[in-house]
Amino acid sequence: MSTRLLFLIVGIANATWAPLVPLVQDRAGLDAAGLGLLLLTFGIGSILAMPSAGAAASRLGFRPVLLAGTLAIGLALPVLAVGDGLVELTLALVLFGAGMGAVDCVMNLQAVVVEHASGRPMMSGFHGLYSLGCILGALIASGLLAAGLGAGWSVLLLVAGIAALFAAAWPGILPAERAGGSGVPAFARPRGIVLVLGLLCFVVFLTEGSALDWSAVFLIQQRGLDPAWAALGYAAFSVTMTAGRLAGDRVVARLGRRPVVVFGGLLAAAGLALSVLVPAWEAALAGYALVGAGCANIVPVLFTAAGRQTAMPARVAVPAVTTLGYAGVLAGPALIGFAAQALGLSAALLLVAALLLAVAAAGRSLPV
Questions:
Q1: Domain of 260?
Q2: Is 186 inside a domain boundary?
Q3: Is 60 inside any structural domain?
Q4: Nearest to 212 by CA among 237, 241, 229
Q5: From residue 63, how far is each of 7, 49, 146, 178, 346 by CA, in Å?
Q6: Any idea what the CATH number is for the domain that residue 135 is in?
Q7: What's this model's pTM, rounded to 2 decimal places?
Q8: Total domains in the fold of the chain
Q9: CB neighbour class for 148 (10 Å; exposed up to 12, middle 13-18, buried from 19)
Q10: Model confidence pLDDT, tens digit, residues 264-315
Q11: Considering only CA atoms, which of 162, 114, 122, 115 is closest in space to residue 16?
C-alpha cells in the first residue's frame, strides 16, 4: 500500500504542474521558444537527480531520499503557482524536476523489492496508481481553479494532500537496513541487458510523449477535427493505459512477462498504423486507444526485468533505465517534430510504429 501511495503522489504532482504551465508562460511573458527552454530545466533537474537518488538510496535507505524528494516537490509547486520572475521560476522548476526524478527513481526501486518479496506480479498495478494519480490530480486541480480558488491556494491544497498521502505511506517505506548495499556509484554507464532495457523504455516513453504532444496536432491537421475535440486522442490513450495497468498484474500473471512485451508492442504499433493509414478521425481515436492498451504494461515489465537482471546491481540498473526512459519523454516529441518536418507527420508516426515493432521483437529475449 505504501508503494502504491508513492506512485499516486507522483501522478498527482505531475497533474498539479500541468495547468500551471500556461499561467507561468503568461506571468513570465514568455513566447513559445522561451517556454520550451524553461520547461527543459525540469528535465535537466530530473535526469541529474535520478542516478544520484539511486546511489543515495543504497547508502541511506529509501526513506531519506523519498522525504527529500517530496519536500522538494512541495516547496517548488507553490513558487511555480505564484512566481513571476524568470530566475525564481527556473530554480523552482529545476527543484521540482529533481524532486520528481528522485521520487520516481526510488519508488521504482522499492517497487522492485516489494514485487520480488511478494512472489507475484505487482509492477503494473503500481504504475496504474501513477496513471490514476494523473487523472485525479488533473480533475482536482481543474475543479479548484474553475471554482475561482486561484492558483496559489489550489496548489497549496494539493500539496497538503500530497503531504498527507506521504505521511500515510511513511510506515511502509523501506528503511536503511532493508534498502541494501553500499559502494554503489552515483553514475554508472548502462551496459549489456540494462542498456537494452533502457533503450526499450526510451521507445515506449517516446510513444507516450507522441500521444501527449502530437495526437491533437495530428487530429486537427490530418483528420480535420475541431480543435475543441482534439484532446480526445490523448484521452482515449490515457483511459486504456490506466485500465490496462490496473488490470496488468493479472494479465502478466496469466500470460507471462515476455508475451506482454511482445503483444503490447505489436498492439501499440497496430494502433499507430490504424490512426495513420485509415482516413477517419474515429479510426484515429480507436488507434490511440490501442496504443494506450499496448503500451500500458511494457514499462512495468521492463522495470521488473531491470531489477531481476544480474549484469548490474539493481540500485544502478533501475536509475539507469529510468533516466533513459525520461530521455524518451524529453527528446522524443522533438525528434518526432524533426522527422515530421522532413517526412510529414504521418510518416514520422509510422517510424514510431516501426520502433514499437522492434520493442516487440526484443521482448522475446527479455530476462524474466
A1: 193-365
A2: no
A3: yes
A4: 237
A5: 15, 16, 36, 11, 46
A6: 1.20.1250.20
A7: 0.79
A8: 2
A9: exposed
A10: 999 999 999 999 999 999 999 999 999 999 999 999 999 889 888 888 887 7
A11: 162
